Amino acid sequence: MENKHKKIDYAKWGYLFILPFFVSFFIFSFIPLVDTIRYSFFEYYRSGIKEVGPNFIGLENYISLLGSDMLKYAGNTMILWIIGFIPQIVIALVLAEWFVDARLKIHGSQFFKVVIYLPNLIMASAFAMLFFTMFSTNGPINSILQSLGWIRQPIDFLGSVFGTRSLVGLMNFLMWFGNSTIMLMAAIMGISPDIFEAAELDGCNSIQRFFYITLPQIRPILAYTLITSIIGGLQMFDVPQILTNGQGTPDRTSMTLIMFLNSHLKSKNYGMAGALSVYLFVVSGILCFIVYRMTNNDDPDGSKAAAKKAKKQRRA
Amino acid sequence: MKSKGPSHLRSIFAHIVLVILSFMCLFFFYILFVNATRSHADLQKGFSALPGNYFLENLKNVANDGTFPMFRGIINSLVVSGCSAAICTYFSALTAYGLYAYNFKCKKVAFTFIMAILVMPTQVTAMGFLRLVTNMGMYDSLLPLIIPSIASPAVFYFMYSYLQSSLPLSLVEAARIDGSGEFRTFNQIVIPIMKPAIAVQAIFTFVGSWNNYFVPALVIQSKDKMTVPILIATLRGADYMNFDMGKIYTMILVAIVPIILVYLFLSKYIIAGVTLGGVKE
Hints:
The complex is a heterodimer of chains A (316) and B (281).
Chain A: H1 11-39, E1 42-47, E2 50-56, H2 60-67, H3 70-100, H4 109-121, H5 124-134, H6 140-147, H7 161-189, H8 193-201, H9 206-217, H10 219-234, H11 238-243, H12 257-266, H13 270-296, H14 303-315
Antiparallel strand pairs in A: 1-2
Helix pairs in contact in A: 1-13, 3-7, 3-10, 4-7, 5-7, 10-13, 12-13
Chain B: H1 4-36, H2 40-44, H3 55-64, H4 70-101, H5 107-116, H6 126-135, H7 143-146, H8 153-166, H9 169-177, H10 182-193, H11 195-211, H12 214-219, H13 228-237, H14 245-276
Helix pairs in contact in B: 1-14, 3-14, 4-8, 4-11, 8-11, 11-14, 13-14
């Protein structure tokens, strides 16, 4: 990155070129962030047409949030994320391994890649609306199951906790497994073919190869996928919001943290919304820091650390 | 050649799984397509695997529905997504070039800062954003959905990686010797070099903005300014049971068709672009 040329005369151009980014960030992200944090310490809400506050109340919003259903919603968010994430990462790993494996001779792999990535681009709200109509009691899914003779009475998918959560998980799975597959595939293709060749000569079968070579080699990207997926899961909103019409039905078991935030914002309950935002900010800040460390060290794929470790072991 | 047998079986198994997964991905869209071509009365009778011939009628109903101005919404969404994609890619490229080609004091700090906010969710500042937009008099307008995309850390990072791999600084130097101004160098030499990166990121920004629901739902109030996702949400919130189901399916279809069309033409570049933005190799 060091330049041999003298660029001192041109420094002002550098500042000028990065100025729009920072001005925009300052106005539309930094000021709102400060404002959000500030109001989290205030009693400030609207009841009917009367506006209460802002009155400084210290940490009261934070404490009352802890006593509210926030932790339950955090749990919901986590459950909904896990239901989608586990099948997603397992299937993505298997598919990525298959696509890369030349011996399997996957026909039409480009077609399959195009198809499995498709749901990722579909508008989440429209997708959720589609699922809502399809899985309603008089929708096509029940109609198909009935005409197949598998069920007598229509199933009320959205009336049960299990049904609703599974549908959210299924949608998240469908929307993200193609993306993960393509990410992991690129990671597997980045492994040196020499390692695979050596393994083949040693008579390593495909299962051994997967667990002892592929998995350890792509661990950094796997970790990256995991963390970014957690950040995405924390922001889960569109799908459960549309599917349950913002209610998190049944009995708020599919209410996520951002849906909670959204309902506070809609009812102009700024103090509470601020405190909730700060909680979310702290959690995502920690996750951001982990991603930052991953994308920004000199040893992004862990190869140097691995070499060092191997050296140590050899010495021992 | 002992491994030939099991490998063959595995290959068949892999194909079966892939076909099942592809079926799952396409099945819902197929039902959507079929149901959008059938009339309400027809839909009440039950499911049919074959499309009907009611599509144009449904489309007409969607177009004439004043409560859910879907086509107006599509125009709004096109404006917001198109403008966002344009300014986001241009300014991200500009920022990336500024940090790549010049040396200045705060360079390192600026870069570290952008990397630190790379994956920060926008939702955490939503409350302050809403208040700010209201105070600036931009509540219920499309501008607050467009302007903030000037600062997109992820797009910046992509552009920066691209510059590192494809723009030799000697080229910039040569342009200087030929008497080209700094700004002109960027617009006429750097931008053409970055075309592939700009194209990929323009697609992703466009799609992201097209699908965005959280922020627009907070900012937009009046019907004629609503973008497609808000209209879909209003549809969900309305008294759903009295609706013409054929029309509902057609609305959903209309909401996702533009993206599917884009995808059909550009899938190769989109899939290649997914991994480029991710982890540094």
